Amino acid sequence: MTMSTNLGWPSEPDPAPEHRRLGWLARRLGVSRETGAEDDAHTDAAHTDAADSGAHGVTVGDSPLVATTSASDEHVFRSSSFEAATPAAAEPERVDEEASYAPEPGIAGDGSDAEGASATDETGSEGPTSLTSADPAARAEPGDSAQPAQLSEVVGKEPDPTHRGEQHSESAAPVENAVDDAGRFGGSERENPQDGAGDNVVDESLDAARQLVDHADREALVAALPTPGSDTPLARELAENARRRIQLTGRPFPKPVSPRVLTVANQKGGVGKTTTTVNIAAALAQAGLSVLVIDLDPQGNASTALGIDHHAEVPSIYDVLVDGTPLLEVVQPCSTVENLHCAPATIDLAGAEIELVSLVARESRLQKAITAAADQGHAYDYILIDCPPSLGLLTVNAMVAASEVFIPIQCEYYALEGLSQLLKNIDLVKRHLNPALHVSTILLTMYDGRTRLSAQVADEVREHFPEQVLRTTVPRSVRVSEAPSFGETVMTYDPASSGALAYLEAAGELADRGAAGQA
Ligand code: ADP
Ligand code: MG
Fold this sequence. Notes:
The protein is of the alpha/beta class. The chain has helices at 17-29, 37-53, 71-79, 87-90, 151-155, 162-169, 178-191, 200-224, 233-248, 273-286, 301-305, 317-323, 327-330, 352-357, 365-375, 393-401, 419-432, 452-464, 478-482, 490-493, 498-515; strands at residues 260-264, 291-295, 332-333, 340-343, 382-386, 404-410, 438-447, 469-475.
């Protein structure tokens, strides 16, 4: 196989129409590809391996984040009419990306993100994440000897060994010739009748069909990317990021079945609440959803990160909670991301915990403000509430206003300490104030693929909360921590970085769950 090191199609004298279309998509997404039948031979061989080993997306050292075409999707693609081509059908089962690769020496990728470890390596013991050594043993850090043996006690729940088994039970399915698929769908697109334009049903069908074609194009591009060998971890990571970018960039996220209000809570400070709130919100908004961030932390970090003015005189969430100002009067648009709004927090909010104590219905003031805004006809698809690192009245207001709790957990040993207290508080609020409240989503943040500790904490959390933990983990990333100082989220500051890709991917999971009514 010859390696293509530029972004174009230098060696193809007369590319077929579907190839030209893929070339355009590749250039738009900024990735290189390879051509030829050898790719098919490699993918086929890899599929046999995948099928033999029964590997799956959430297993050791794999990437659950890169979708390939599964057998069921293949069936949908071959047999679908446009009516059947729903966004859900267009979203493939995520299977083992490693298994679908054939080992191939060399380098591919655009080199735009060489920082940090991959978000996709969940164990740190294998896979393409290490930039420093391909030898798993070399990644052990001196501090790794601290085994989180008591984590089960911290959470107060026995691990259920069946969950990981369930995750393994889904079988990896083969990728067929993706370029051929793209050609087939290209044909469908061209044959699609236009005479029903203006009719909503037809428009929806067309949209669904376009999504399917777009999906097929992306799959074809992913299949066409070369796979560097395990002796070149940096190249593997670059290729991996290129694949993820192809899969994710520009994909519209489905609207939730009903508007979702999520409280991003964890009474531990510095675990990534604010970072998660603003980046997930930005990713959802960029994917076409209407999103509001409510900054409920007196430090106003979320407001800063979104570039929202929040000096003392600015109307803020304090006015909403304490003075009963309508929520929409304090909401400001985010200048860097369309569809994204923020109710800022000013320093006044620091006194609100005390001032709220003497007010009527002190626990449900935020909830009333949100309901009143919705009654005025202003419904956001997503409202994310960034909580302070405490379990006081502000957090209680957030929990009464939301039906879902989104807990970011830092992949550190102490991360789970205090989680039982948080769960107890959620339970209290659920019993006395908000029966709908539940922990719907957990995101592992600041994952360091080079340490065993990160992997162990991640495994432990997944064992306790198999339904809630998102497959995506957010890696430690310099870009993520730099972004707020520019008044931006990493989604606009460096959209190609591993941190931005991880947040985009996590937001996609969140949106897919919401659309499937699983939240
Ligand atoms: P919290 O809101 O829970 O207190 P923050 O979101 O403010 O936590 O994060 C704490 C610090 O960690 C911030 O300086 C932030 O920039 C940094 N941080 C958060 N997530 C990441 C990440 N994935 N990689 C690197 N730094 C991160
Ligand atoms: Mg914060």
